[in-house]
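Appendix C. Worked example: HMA domain-containing protein
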Amino acid sequence: MVTKSPKETPAREMAAAAAAAAKRAPVAAASPGDQVLQVVVMKVAIHCQGCAGKVRKHISKMEGVTSFSIDLESKKVTVMGHVSPAGVLESISKVKKAELVFL
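Step 2, the predicted output written as structure tokens:
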């Protein structure tokens, strides 16, 4: 099996993809073993391009991530993929201080 590394996606494309995924999502609850496509938005303590690069490198190595975007100006990081919000938060928190943003 060939693994694809996640790609960084501009924020507006990420929002459009998240809206489309939400429309396609099944209404029935998923079993605990199934991973559904998740969009996780976090506020991360990124102050410069160096901080953003550190977070970018970390996210690109995470399993289950299909795409992500980093908005340095608003200090928001959006991760999309077959991941859990708690897992993404825990992983990013190892590199930079982060907290989930509830929409």
